[in-house]
Amino acid sequence: MLSVNNIDLHYGAAQALRGVSMAVRPGEVTAVLGRNGVGKTTLLRAIVGRQRISAGDIQWEGARVDGLRPDARARAGIASVPQGREIFPLLSVHENLQTGFAPLPRTERVIPDEVFELFPVLREMLTRRGGDLSGGQQQQLAIGRALVTRPRLLVLDEPTEGIQPSIIKDIGRAISYLRDRGDMAILLVEQYFEFARDLCDQYHVMDRGQIVQSGSRAEMNEDEVRGLLTV
Predict the structure, then answer these.
(1) Backbone conformation region of residue 208, classed left if phi is above 0, alpha if psi is from -120 to 50, else beta
(2) What is the DSSP string of 13-81?
(3) Domains identified in the chain and CATH numbers
(4) What is the end-to-end Cα distance of the chain in Å, rounded?
(5) CA 132 to CA 113: how far, in whole Å?
(6) Which of 81, 99, 107, 161 is deepest in the core (most CB within 10 A)?
(7) Whole-prediction pTM value?
(8) Is the backbone of residue 39 left (phi > 0), alpha (psi -120 to 50) or beta?
(9) Is 9 helix (H, G, I), strand (E, B) or coil?
(10) What is the percent of the chain where pLDDT is above 70?
């Protein structure tokens, strides 16, 4: 389980996160919702090690990880699919997937068949440069690259941003499959409310660097949550 405990985060004198706490469990999708600029991406950056917290702690599988570098967190089983995808445009699809080998021992440096089962287009385009793919295909590639690392925690930042509806459905099916497998915790930041609502087991709404509402999908008051996203 991922446990985020009362964390603060500052950019210089500006405070970006204020006392944020949450838990993300295997076999569940935990969604973080909120308008632009409320701290969602900052929270993910803190979890994967791309931004240092100034108070609180982050624990993964019972051990503190907030002092670890991003590569050490990746070796501990935390994988990130960042906003904007951040694939390597001049590398082929195959080479992009192979960059996921970095945190793995040599004996595990193979691309799992599961990647191509979830996203068949990647097999068809193995030799094509990443930069020549559509936005939706690049998003599938970014998720595939994360899955190559055999993560136990998958962190997704706005996976539907700028993506055509057919591929949004493919990504949703992939997230559902990974959740239902039962051995992976999934943390999803998303502005597309319906996508997050349909996938999540737990949700948190952020505003001004704080969590202002949390609950289970079954408890969600959709009108209330939508109101928090549009204020």
Answers:
(1) left
(2) TEEEEEEEEEEE-TT-EEEEE--TTSSHHHHHHHHHTSS--SEEEEEETTEE-TTS-HHHHHHTTEEEE
(3) 2-230 (3.40.50.300)
(4) 32
(5) 23
(6) 81
(7) 0.94
(8) left
(9) strand
(10) 100
